[in-house]
Amino acid sequence: MITIEPQEVFMRQALALARRGWGATHPNPMVGALIVEDGQVVAEGWHAQDGGPHAERVALDGLGRRPAAGATLYVTLEPCSTAGRTGACTEAIMAAGLRRVVVGATDPNPAHAGRGLTGLRAAGVEVTAGVLERECTDLNLIFNHGITQNGPLLAAKSAVTLDGKIACRTGESRWITGETARADVHRWRRLFPGIAVGAMTILKDNPRLTARCEGVVEWCPWRFVFDGLLRTVVDKNMPRVFSDEFRERTVVVTTPHGGLGYVRKLREQGIKVWCFESATQRVPFADFRRKCADEKISGVLFEGGAQLVSELVRARQLDYLLVYRAPVLFADDKAKGVFSGLRPERPEQAVRLAEVRHEILGDDALMRGRVVYPEKLLIDESVFGLR
Hints:
Layout: H1 6-18, E1 32-37, E2 40-46, H2 55-63, E3 72-77, H3 89-96, E4 100-105, H4 115-122, E5 126-129, H5 133-139, H6 141-149, E6 153-160, E7 165-167, H7 179-191, E8 194-198, H8 199-205, E9 222-226, H9 231-234, E10 250-254, H10 260-268, E11 272-275, H11 285-294, E12 299-304, H12 306-314, E13 320-325, E14 336-337, E15 352-361, E16 364-372
Parallel strand pairs: 3-4, 4-5, 6-12, 6-13, 8-9, 8-12, 9-10, 10-11
Antiparallel strand pairs: 1-2, 1-3, 7-14, 13-16, 15-16
């Protein structure tokens, strides 16, 4: 029999509150907080958007009075100890007279990590840290990466069969995974400020690249189209991402090899173009990453195609990977695989995932984690193709 500690029960409630800010708090983290008196939740709060009040302050304001003696504040992330735009939450906690605080994850910023906890303890507040720490840390993948790496999180998503295929030899891929998994993809789309695909995905599938979650208004992230030769502009039937109501959220990522005339054509239509210098038609991912940082775009989810995502791995620029695996078997050597271009000679030379999470979504399974590269990445130089 598994015993669940009351602290974990309340922290899970705080996590559920934090998720209400899913995708809306960038560049800030999602945070949930609640105040418990005599085993009952009497106030709750979450960080709803960048610039808005922090979760702890929302909960304290919602209480509308001083917490009772013995009250406990549960919060998913270490309370901030610096003033910022909304004032230090540690000061608000102490001013309210709270004498006990339970924290999930520690602030990932090395300059601040632990300072809030230390300050509260110095003021006589009983602090318990690390409750559901893994879950609380996982909640803020994009924020944590930005704070520790000073740049955007570049992630990739793929849906595969049991033998790692993303399409039949005919190119047909709809649908490998079920409705539950496909709905989960839209949930992740809502989290990331940007979605990226290659030119062939645009030409073949003509995707909308928006987040369409049940019961929620359709939302459009920045839509990046990697098209080093601007083949998507040559097509007579302009893709929907160039002509729909969200076209101002579309950015074509290209090189001078595509032709400046096509660049002007796109810009005249209100489409943004990021043109990077390159010796080939391939966009340098390191330059793209720096541009995203300059534009304060904290995370980009690459959804295909296989060539684009494989290039991202070969360039050691993929930070995070989500793979949806369906109970489907093609068993066909000519069916299309998701990754190519490496040639590890031993298992230890493979790319691996760390901090792995597993989820069951209907009949499908999601495995996701941080990408870890071997010391030396062995490249298959014979693999080269257009996106």
